[in-house]
Specification:
By secondary structure, this protein is an all-alpha fold. Helices cover about 60% and strands about 5% of the residues. The protein has 2 domains: about 15-260, Rhopdopsin 7-helix transmembrane proteins, CATH 1.20.1070; about 295-330 and about 340-350, no CATH class.
Length: about 375
């Protein structure tokens, strides 16, 4: 995992310049990446969602292991071992998070088998914590044997989750991978991070098993750090479970597709004022004069003529104690150009005579 040895059997902080630079770069990359991912998680997480809290906890627990390059002997071995505890818990928690995200797509039997096998790995992580402490404090060399088993107890669940997600997208959803990237670049980033994490898992496993000749300093390799960062990126870039994210994307895709099919350019809203006036003329075509005259204008006792007010007032006439109120005006007081004044139009059609006696209007 983090084996750093000198030429002798004594395990200590690396002194070779190449090894020291490589390990310092790897730890800086791990810590910086996790800090940024934690900030993104805090900015996007919702209160009361357990999954979001577990993702943030996963990131925080792994941060400490990106700082053990600074202490010197004898603090070095103790500090490394303590921060490794948080890292191992973070790895186990990542598998639980992967189960929670993928659970809606799993059958009950598969889901139970998944989480039970994750829990059964906890004793190994306890052994790994002790082996790490004993090795870097020069007590025994058990860690050299348990380290080879680390990929087996850490990564199979993540590989299964990745393959399951790709298969579910292909089988149950009506869009392909390229359409997913166009609809949601965030989801496309998550899929790319999944592929990269598995690629570095394979490289790290080959390095641990000495499957290929490494030119790196003895016991120092950054591949597990790269794999861990990409796995955490998958958890952070899409905080919700996979089904919720995919269903939301499918609804958005269907709405956009339906809008493209049923929305005709001829009825697309035109923001031009001229087009607005033209639509008003079309809507009022065939209506003689002002369409709402009966509800807007009422004859009053005062001079027997119509009195016009805007839509914030009512019409009234007074004759001693007699008061008549007309309904509130329903349209704006501004008349379109070309329509005659309702007062003049009313007078032309119904000329008033002074000899007609006044008749009191009853309350409406």
């Amino acid at each position: 995992m983090r084996t750093m040895t000198m030429a002798s059997d004594h395990v200590a902080k690396p002194t070779d310049p190449d090894g020291l630079i490589l390990e310092a770069w790897g730890q800086g990359f791990l810590l910086g990446s996790l800090l940024i991912l934690a900030a993104i998680t805090v900015a996007n997480m919702r209160a009361g969602v357990l999954l979001h809290k577990l993702i943030l906890l996963e990131l925080v627990l792994a941060m400490g292991h990106g700082t053990f390059i600074f202490p010197h002997e004898p603090v070095y071995g103790w500090y490394l071992s303590v921060t490794a505890i948080g890292l191992n818990i973070s790895w186990a928690l990542h598998n639980v998070i992967a189960w929670m995200k993928n659970r809606p797509f799993l059958s009950r039997k598969v889901s139970r088998f998944y989480i039970v096998t994750v829990v059964l790995c906890f004793p190994y992580w306890c052994l790994e914590i002790y082996a790490n402490f004993a090795y870097f404090n020069n007590l025994n060399r058990i860690f050299l044997h348990t380290r080879h088993l680390e990929p087996l107890f850490r990564d199979p669940w993540w590989v299964f989750t990745t393959l399951s997600l790709f298969w579910t997208i292909k089988r149950e959803y009506s869009f392909g991978l390229w359409e997913i990237i166009k609809i949601s670049p965030r989801f496309g980033i998550m899929l790319a991070a999944m592929i990269l994490s598995i690629a570095f898992i394979i490289v790290d496993t080959c390095s641990v098993l000495n499957a290929f000749q490494s030119v790196l300093p003895t016991g120092i390799e950054p591949f597990w750090k790269l794999s861990s960062v990409f796995k955490c990126l998958c958890d952070t870039v899409v905080l919700d479970d996979f089904k919720t994210a995919l269903d939301h994307m499918r609804r958005h895709w269907m709405e956009r597709k339906n809008r493209d099919i049923f929305v005709s350019p001829s009825i697309t809203p035109n923001p031009s004022p001229r087009a607005y006036r033209a639509r008003g003329d079309i809507e009022s075509a065939g209506s003689p004069g002002w369409p709402d005259l009966p509800s807007v204008y009422s004859p009053t006792k005062q001079s027997g003529r119509l009195r016009y007010r805007d839509n914030t007032e009512s019409l009234e006439s007074r004759n001693g104690d007699e008061i008549t109120r007309s309904p509130t005006c329903l349209v704006n007081s501004e008349r379109p150009r070309g329509i005659p004044s309702p007062e003049s139009s009313f007078e032309n059609r119904h000329p008033m005579r002074e000899d007609i006696p006044d008749i009191p209007l009853q309350r409406m």
